[in-house]
Amino acid sequence: MKRLILLAAAMASLPAAALAQDTSAGAPRLFSAEDVFELEWADDPQISPDGTKAIYLRRFNDIQTDRTRAHVWIVNLDGTGHEPLLADEGSYRSARWSPDGTRIAYMKSVEAGTGLFVHYLGSGREVLAGTFARSPRGITWAPDGQSIAFTMSVKGESKPLIKSPKKPKGAKWAPPAVVIDRARYRTNGSGFLELAYDHVFVVPAEGGTPRQLTSGDFNHGGSLSFTPDGAEILFSANRNEDWELQSREADIFAVGVATGALRQLTSEPGTETSPKVSPDGKRVAFLKTANTRVPFLATNIHVMGLDGTGARNLTEGLDSRAGSAEWLSNSEIAYTFQNRGENFVGAVTTGGKRRTAAEKIGGTTVGRPYVSGTFDAGKAGAIVYTKGSATRPADLYAMAEGQEVRLTALNEDLLAHRDLGELRSFTYNSSLDGLEVQGWVLTPPDYEEGKRYPLIIEIHGGPHLAYGPHFSAEMQRMAAAGYVVVYDNHRGSIGYGSAFANLLDGKYSSPDDFADHMSAVDWAIDNGFADKENLFIAGGSAGGIATAYAVGLTDRFNAAMAAKPVINWVSKVLTADSYIGQIQNQFPGPPWEHLEHYWNRSPLSLVGNVKTPTMLITGEVDYRTPISETEQFYQALQLLRVPSVMVRIPGSNHGIASRPSRLNAKTDYTLAWFDKYRTDTDK
Question: Residue 642 sits in which domain range?
Answer without folding.
Answer: 422-677
